[in-house]
Amino acid sequence: MEQKLKNRLREESRYDDKLKDEIWSQIELQLEGSPRTQDTIGTQAWEKPRMNNKGRTSRMKAIKIWTGVAAAAIAVAVFLTLPPGTAMMKSIQNWFAPEKEIEIEVEGQKEQTQGQVHVDEASRYAIYYDKERYKLVQEDGKDVITTIDPLPEPYPQVSLTIEQNLSKKPEELAQEIAEQLAKEYAEVREIEQVTSPVNGYSIHAIDGSDRLSKVITVYVTSNEQQGSFILTSRYFLEAAEGHGARFTQTLEQFEVLKPE
């Protein structure tokens, strides 16, 4: 029964496998340490008939197991149906994974980074970013992930911007963005429908072939309502395998919080 519950948590929850394992571990710890599991039901449901100590121990062990399974079932059921934007959901997120290790690949080499969670209740999204290299700030009502220390001249801007359009669908917005980029960049690629790092549309543009030439990649994805999220990665050509790759993999941690 416990394995079935664990499997259900893994199959039905939209969170990553590592977080699911952490959730189950926390449920198990709560069950093992709960005094109610050992006392409350045992004095009521199993008080009669009387039995010897060995029989009582066996019965109490059975009670503990089945009570634990029932509590786990409730915990899993609540977690699976809980709207991510609720205060309780926010508490759960903070309890289980305010930070987590993220494996990324840069220039062919895999490395572990410490991801810091950012949950935006107003815009209804969550994302993990590399807190050792970047900071998240607000600029003009947008969330911007950028280098902890500003890059000196003449390096172009390096940032990952997250903003939301509440009224336009991704396909409409992607076309408008492509048209705007065509006025600002030397080369704009065709709009591409993608499933990674997010599910939506990608527009990529480059402004020249010099090592410091500006590069921009815009992803447009649904906000699960009537609008879209616009995720804009800015860097320069020489940093494509560095900051560019890191931003792409950061966006793999982006998650829209469904409306309550």
Task: Break the fold down into its secondary structure elements and pairings.
Elements: H1 2-12, H2 17-32, H3 35-39, H4 53-81, H5 87-96, E1 99-106, E2 109-120, E3 125-130, E4 134-139, E5 142-147, E6 159-165, H6 170-182, E7 187-188, E8 192-194, E9 200-206, E10 214-222, E11 228-236, H7 240-251, E12 255-256
Antiparallel strand pairs: 1-2, 2-3, 3-12, 4-5, 5-6, 6-11, 7-9, 8-9, 9-10, 10-11
Helix pairs in contact: 1-4, 2-4
In words, what does this structure look like?
The protein has 260 residues and is α+β, with helices and mostly antiparallel strands. It folds into two domains: 2-81, no CATH class; 98-256, Mog1/PsbP, alpha/beta/alpha sandwich (Protein Transport Mog1p, Chain A), CATH 3.40.1000. Helix content is 37%, strand content 30%. The protein is built from seven helices and twelve strands. The strands form two sheets. Strands 4, 5, 6, 7, 8, 9, 10 and 11 form an eight-stranded antiparallel β-sheet that branches. A four-stranded antiparallel β-sheet has the order 1-2-3-12. It is globular. The protein starts with a helix and ends with a strand. Keywords: Membrane, Transmembrane, Transmembrane helix. The chain crosses the membrane at residues 63-82.
